[in-house]
Amino acid sequence: MPQPRSLHLETDLDNDKTENSNAGDHNATQPQSPPNFSKVDELVGLIVKPAGNMLKLRCPATGNPAPNITWLKNDLEPQRAIGPIHMTKWTLRMEDLVVEDGGNYTCIVCNILGCINHTFKVDII
């Protein structure tokens, strides 16, 4: 006697569930968690650098779904009069610093469960 078979027809509702479960790029096998700074020792308050040097600010964080990061300088999008600002994953980097590069740099790390932030006071001398 043949074995009974079941048939599942994929509906639009099934597709919505699949797409929503993948939203936010999170690891479904791990419990969801809000952002958390993973290297607190890198989160110093005051950084003093001589003009002409390089500055690297890092705010590495974990969370599930994976958090994103936004950088601000004095509460605005960071901009420089001279030279680029390199932003990669958790790092903001600037070379050939000038006095005008000084200010309060804030990293804001967020996922769907919340946000954390840290502000670096940067003085260029």
UniProtKB/TrEMBL annotation:
Keywords: Disulfide bond, Glycoprotein, Immunoglobulin domain, Membrane, Receptor, Repeat, Signal, Transmembrane, Transmembrane helix
GO molecular function, one term: fibroblast growth factor binding
GO cellular component, one term: plasma membrane
Bilayer topology term: Single-pass membrane protein
Domain of life: Eukaryota
Organism: Bracon brevicornis
Segments for region (Disordered): 1-37
Stated name of the protein: Ig-like domain-containing protein
Major subcellular site: membrane
Compartments where located: Membrane
Segments forming domain Ig-like: 35-109
Polar residues: bias regions: 20-31
Segments of skewed composition (Basic and acidic residues): 7-19
